[in-house]
Amino acid sequence: MKVFSDEWAEAYVKALNENANYKAAASWWTGDFMFVVEPSGNLDHKITMFIGLYKGDCTGSKVLKEGDEYEILPPNSEPRPLKEGEKIGAEFVFSGTYDNWVKVLKQELDPIQGLMAGKFKLVGNMAKVMRATKAAQELVVSTTIIEGTEFY
Fold it and tell me: Has this prediction a pTM greater than 0.90?
């Protein structure tokens, strides 16, 4: 299954919820993410994926369709459940090129180090994200549990 597809996103939710290390590292975390994958390398279009994260659980995911808009929620706001027909809201936006995302998924680049090096951009509370380094690493480890991931 293609990375960042609807099917892959569903498998990612399952992998996260089965990862005991993620649950422990993120037991205090509240704040949903939009992962934005900018075209580069073999990817010729932008992909935006919502991931719901609440106190060690992944509450859901959604790959936005072309033209779908999302809203950046204020810091520490309550997560907004996914509802059909409503604009998705997330407290954080983590964006970078496809080539850098592939390096993260292959565990060649730590997402926090990538952020510090300017390979990724963050919208949201940087200090809160920096306190969640272990949880961020487990978000990546969870992608390695997904069988059959295909890159573009």
Answer: yes
